[in-house]
Amino acid sequence: MKAIMVMFDSLNRRMLQPYGCDWVETPNFDRLAKRSVTFDNAYIGSMPCMPARRELHTGRYNFLHRSWGPIEPFDDSMPQLLQDNNIHSHLVTDHQHYWEDGGATYHNRYQTYEFVRGQEGDLWKGVVQPPDPNEDKKFPGSYMFRQDQINRNYIQSEEMMPQARTFDLGLEFIDTNQDADNWFLQLETFDPHEPFFTQPEWKERYPHDYDGPQFDWPPYDRVTQSSDVVDHARYEYAALMTMCDHYLGKVLDKMDEHNLWDDTLLIVNTDHGYLLGEHDWWAKARMPWYNELANIPLFIWDPRSKKVNEHRTSLVQTIDLPATILEYFGIDRPADMQGQPLRETIDNDTPVRTAGLYGVYGGHVNVTDGRYVYMRATENEDIQLYNYTLMPTHMRNLFGVEEF
Question: Considering Cα of 279, then 282, then 284, then 286, what sign does the dihedral take?
Fold first, then answer.
């Protein structure tokens, strides 16, 4: 038995054809929906990137007890459990947060891994240059903005794009191991996370009038830009979505070529959505967790049930995916795993929960039954929070001595 997870970052369900979008070109997502089960009530657990990935490893909510950070020594990691049970786990990714202080323990839980450089402000190419005095006005995280501009200068063609290189390595793994048994591939791209950087061939799919400055990296803030700037950002995101769709199609082609539909679980997922001006907000993290962020796309093909071109309304969450993968390989779940295997949900829409929690550490706590959402904000922003952690790291730096 084999399993493939194709994971995107910040993938918006409202901009996918299977979920009713009629203006963004995503024919391969439509093709996927016809070969799998589409979940209408899939929800996040913990926001944002690495908290969501900790849930993919542990099947437990992260946001209730710690902020952004690594896998903990007391965590039961799904890829590690696979390896312990003679299932080869392999990670291919261009998601640079895995190599920061706050994510540095994830990739070594896989038996093997490959990393592609160059996304966002990845500390990749070293070009010493004087700082731009106007940089802070361009983007609040100015050092990341500067590094991103440096990185882009080294990515001048489609085949050099981090997403393209990531999928090439994932397809290589599939070709190499098509006849082998007992493996799990996590093929994960940072796209369509901001910045919405693509080559001209993708931008040309969405022609529009715009003569303003570069704006493919919206701030995490309220929308103050004019409508033409907002529209431009949406078209830039759409171009990147269509690029993602193209490379998803290459995985589906491999599934066809090697008859992997017969014995390979396929999961296509994301960590969260992204606001492109809806509710007068950009991005994520600062606003309430609207459904544009929390209600995420999810597609699963299970070769045991062989259900295709069907929708499921049962409430499921990110924490259910590691439980699903372990069950597929016949491995018992750890006692602390809160997620549930989705085998019966895929087969006949059997519910696995009546409600689900989601949110971010120190922010709104939300609960949904798949129809209604209750949001609870913090009563007092001055209340001190405590991380339950043995790995004292933030996103890109260690805890300071004062914090201890």
Answer: negative
